[in-house]
Amino acid sequence: MGACSGAHLWAREFKSIGHQVAIIAAKFIEPFRTGGKKDNNDAEAICEAAMHD
């Protein structure tokens, strides 16, 4: 997940129910974003950045 202000809270919640969570800084996601800064574009960029980790 992208490291926004609420990411740490959600990361703890997801970990508590058994998910594996990684928080990625925005500077590492930005090169993978296509188009403007919208939720859909951000989600695709996060997925792409996670696959290249």
- Poorly predicted runs are none
**Number of E-type strands:** 0
Give the N-to-C terminal Cα separation: 13 Å
The biggest beta sheet is recorded as: none
- Overall 3D shape: globular
Report strand %.
under 5%
* Number of H- or I-type helical stretches: 3
**Helix-strand category:** mainly alpha
Helix content: 40-55%
* Rg from Cα: 11 Å
Could you give the order of the helices and strands? HHH
Give the mean pLDDT: 86
Describe this protein's structure.
It comes from Thalassotalea insulae. This is Transposase. The two termini are about 15 Å apart. The longest helix has 13 residues. The model has no long low-confidence stretch (mean pLDDT about 85). The chain has a domain of about 30 residues. The relative contact order is 0.19. With about 55 residues, it is mostly helical.
